[in-house]
Write a structure and sequence with these properties.
By secondary structure, this protein is α/β, with parallel strands linked by helices. About 30% of the residues lie in helices and about 20% in strands. The protein contains 8 helices and 7 strands; from the N terminus they run αααβαβαββαβααββ. The chain has helices at about 10-20, 25-30, 45-55, 70-80, 90-105, 140-150, 175-185, 195-200; strands at about 60-65, 85-90, 110, 125-130, 155-165, 205-210, 225-235. Strands 3-2-1-4-5-7-6 form a 7-stranded mixed β-sheet. β4 (about 125-130), α6 and β5 form a beta-alpha-beta unit. The longest helix is centred in the first third of the chain and has 15 residues, at about 10-20. The model has no long low-confidence stretch (mean pLDDT about 95). The structure holds S-adenosylmethionine.
């Protein structure tokens, strides 16, 4: 790799590489054992997503699931009448998601892609949903992430998110943005508070922001109080 800095993109690429050098983590290995007791491996949608759909906060349209993993939320939306694009950078995740969609006769357009390389259709989506991907976005890429959402959403489209609460049992590192680069690590995923999420998504109207409900593993939906969940509306700036 050319180690010169001539543009902002070069700075962002350098920071990506600095964080990668330290991290041994790999999503493909993570998904190689499907029997691991990982709570979100169960094929059950997020309880908050189910609530938004059942209370008509979200009405069927076109959705994009960012970091869809094995596809549980994308499949749920498709079964509720949504046209769904779902992307993930892990081939193992996309492979599993496609198998699950076939088993449940759900039509989802799964895309193997890093969200930062996604060739998106501008203003195409009524809903962008992210369950568990945003907390792995390093601080220097957050602006790109927000640009992607802003571009991809319809003017009054909705953005739903589920992410680590600071100090939650599954992760949620309490690091300032600067500390990430001193430690050269996201320490397993950044933790957020409600105030911090409001700050990050201040260009959106907040519809709901709360702790996720703890759901029993036998329930038809997934929920953990270690996570925050929220729904925001694009106010089309
Ligand atoms: C905690 S998992 C959640 C999976 C799924 N959303 C769920 O809740 O079942 C996070 C997912 O985000 C994906 N991911 C992380 N960074 C990504 C990126 N830059 N582009 C696309 N996918 C990404 C990972 O491969 C992983 O499948």
């Amino acid at each position: 790799m050319k180690e010169t800095i001539q543009s902002i993109e070069d700075v962002l690429t350098m920071l990506d590489e600095l964080l990668k050098e330290e991290s041994k983590f790999n999503w493909n290995s993570f998904y190689s054992d499907r029997e691991k007791p990982v709570p979100f491996f169960a094929n059950a949608p997020d309880e908050n997503l189910v609530q938004y759909v059942q209370t008509n906060l979200l009405k069927p349209g076109k959705a994009l699931d960012l970091g869809c993993g094995p596809g549980r939320n994308a499949i749920y939306l498709a079964k509720q009448g949504w046209e769904v694009d779902a992307l993930d950078l892990s081939p193992q995740a996309i492979h599993w998601a496609k198998e699950r969609a076939t088993e449940s006769s759900a039509k989802v357009n799964f895309i193997l892609c890093d969200l930062f390389d996604f060739d998106l259709d501008e203003g195409a989506y009524d809903l962008i949903y992210d369950s568990g991907c945003f907390h792995y976005v390093p601080p220097h890429r957050r602006m790109n992430y927000l640009n992607i959402i802003n571009k991809a959403l319809k003017p009054v489209g909705a953005f739903g998110i589920t992410c680590f609460k600071v100090g939650g049992k599954y992760g949620g590192a309490d690091l300032s943005d600067w500390e990430v680069y001193r430690q050269k690590s996201l320490r397993g995923g950044l933790g957020y508070t409600k105030d911090r999420l409001i700050e990050v998504f201040h260009n959106f109207e907040m519809i709901e922001l709360r702790e996720m409900r703890e759901m029993d593993p036998s329930s038809s939906s997934f929920g953990s109080s270690a996570l925050l969940c929220g729904l925001f509306r694009n106010i089309g700036e």
